[in-house]
Design brief:
Largest sheet: 4 strands, parallel
Structural class: alpha/beta
Strand order of the largest sheet: 3-4-5-6
Oligomer: single chain
Number of domains: 1
Strand content: 5-15%
Number of strands: 6
Radius of gyration: 17 Å
């Protein structure tokens, strides 16, 4: 399936509801394609890391960048020790190293610019303390303009749009 110029490889509809790591067999083929970046979103937990670990040897051979998306408003990634623990768990389980952090400070639609900036500071501090670069900041498009002048000049920003509705907002 192709959406917005991106080939999306996802488990069959039934597999979405299973409580097991499920990565389609097409993934290895996508990883081996030359000249085309491949992004694997496996979640930020042990279960996703275990699924990713199936491909650790191939990824090490091909070369990879593994980014941990950090939302500092989640209890387990709200400070440097929590972020360090998450990284350790993911690295042990996937048998791959986290090479960069993506700052994603958000409380969905409730996020204020002050909260986003405070969250950004948490992620940047953790990056410095852990020796892992913050490679970019992902922020809700409605806040991107306000964030632009307040991030480090060399910090890339990815404005995001939400295309889902929370069940309680339906």
């Amino acid at each position: 399936m192709q959406l917005r110029g991106v080939d999306v490889l996802a488990p069959a509809a039934l597999a979405r509801y299973l409580d097991t790591p499920a990565i389609t067999p097409h993934i290895l083929g996508a990883l081996q394609r030359q000249g085309q970046p491949t992004v694997l979103d496996v979640g930020g937990d042990e279960q996703g890391a275990r699924a990713l670990g199936q491909y650790s040897a191939a990824l090490r051979e091909l070369g990879y960048a593994m980014y941990l998306v950090v939302n500092p408003f989640r209890p387990w990634t709200s400070d440097t020790p929590g972020i360090r623990d998450s990284i350790g768990q993911i690295e042990r389980t996937s048998r791959l190293l986290v090479t960069g952090l993506v700052s994603n400070p958000n409380l969905l639609a409730e996020t204020t610019i002050d909260q986003a900036l405070a969250g950004q500071n948490v992620v940047e501090l953790a990056g410095r303390q852990l020796g892992i670069p913050v490679v970019f900041t992902a922020i809700e498009r409605s806040l991107a303009g306000q964030m632009a002048g307040r991030l480090a000049p060399d910090m890339p920003m990815l404005p995001l749009e939400r295309f889902f509705v929370m069940p309680w907002n339906e």
